[in-house]
Amino acid sequence: MSSENQEFKREMLAALPSLRAFAMSLIGRHDRADDLVQDTIMKAWAKQDHFQIGTNMKAWLFTILRNELYSQMRKRGREVQDSDGHLTETLAHHPEQYGSLDLQDFRRALDQLPPDQREAIILVGASGFSYEEAATICGCALGTIKSRVNRARQRLQEILQVRGENDYGPDETSAPITSRAFVS
Amino acid sequence: MIGKNPSSDDPNAQIAVKLKALFQSVQEEAIPARFLDLLEKLEAAEQRSTLQGKE
After folding, report:
1. Confidence of residue A80 (pLDDT cuts 50, 70, 90)
2. Of A6, A11, A76, B5, which is least surrounded by CB within 10 A?
């Protein structure tokens, strides 16, 4: 084992907790998130010659993981057309994994975002990446990431706002109107 | 916006706090043994193939 290999493994281990958190934030289920992390480790290991020691290991692994996720989703999408049961199973959430009710509620709101918006707000808002780094990871323009993050924030506000108001605020008919006014 | 403290009434600040809490709750977990085992196996396989290459 060369020292470069050991350095690669060491850096990969150091990035694993963030990588798991990224997978969990995107998918919302421990079992599927960890399967995706496992696939990512294998892919990254096979491609380690492409990685330059000293560059951003975390960003590199996040890129591999999200590409792997979307390629699996495309494959699954084709399978879903044949079996309805699979989609229901995939969309089932397991919010009991989060301690507080507040976070469970937030998790459900996050799950309602389109995947591109969810990924953008997680990268910028939780993983500590800059807009530029997030754009590189997602393979899109800087402006695209910015607008996805803005739309994600707006949508999350709407979802959480409407939910809160249903508990102790305006009735269901007026809540969407007041929440729209609030956001804009 | 610069220098403004995130207030508890600012919905964007609340979203940021919850998003980070969600992310960190997983990030703080110990790395599952399956990944440590996997890395050991990948490393061992690579060592074997390197040795075979030298023979």
Report:
1. low
2. B5
Quote the pTM value. 0.80
User: Which of A 109-128 lie inside 8 A of B, CB atoms?
Assistant: 110, 121-122, 125-127
Do A71 and A106 share a domain, yes or no?
no
Which of A92, A117, A143 represents a domain boundary (last residue)?
A92
CA distances from B43 to A9, A24, A66, A146 (A): 9, 26, 24, 40
CB A36 within 8 A of CB A71: no
C-alpha–C-alpha distance, residues B47 and A109, integer Å: 46
- Please say which residue of A47, A71, A92 terminates a domain: A92
Give the number of domains in chain A: 2
Nearest CA in chain A to B31: A17
Contacts of the segment A34-41: beta carbons below 8 A, 24+ positions apart? A34/B32, A34/B34, A36/A65, A36/A68, A36/A69, A36/A72, A37/A65, A37/B35, A38/B34, A38/B35, A38/B38, A39/A68, A39/A72, A40/A64, A40/A65, A40/A68, A41/A12, A41/A16, A41/B35, A41/B38, A41/B39, A41/B42
Residues A119, A37 share a domain: no
What CA–CA distance (Å, rounded) separates A83 from A94?
A: 22
Confidence band (pLDDT; 50, 70, 90) for B11?
A: confident
Residues of B with CB below 8 A from A20's CB? 26-27, 29, 31
Q: Are B21 and A122 in contact (CB under 8 A)?
A: no
Structural domain containing residue A171: 99-184
